[in-house]
Write the structure tokens for this entry.
Amino acid sequence: MRWLFLLLLVLNVVYYVWHQQEAPLKVKEVASLSLYKGTQQDIRLLSESRAATQAVVQDKECLYVGGVATPEVLEQLRQRLTALDIRARKVVGKLVDSAGWWVQVSPESQRLLDETVLSTLSNDFKDLKHKIMLCEGVATVD
């Protein structure tokens, strides 16, 4: 057992000396980042890029209220919104990924339709939903 230990010890010393005689790795030169910047001189976060286009996108977004089962219930909802001075138009066809009948609230009236009014309407109309989507591509009846 002693001889095995001495053999392993000698092999470790030989391996250490052999490993030290290898040529050291050369240091790789790294070019400065300023050479690669070109026209883009700074880094913009996604939140910063969205903030610049938020005003443009906000004009193209509309509030949709509905998801009711029948057109009669939708007409009652539209009349209720009209009574609250909220202008709304019926949506012809289906919204993307949404079942039921919907109305589109005009952008001028969206500020009048806050969470308290929506919760009151949800109590009166079963399965009432609301969502904000892009206005373009949705057909409405004037």
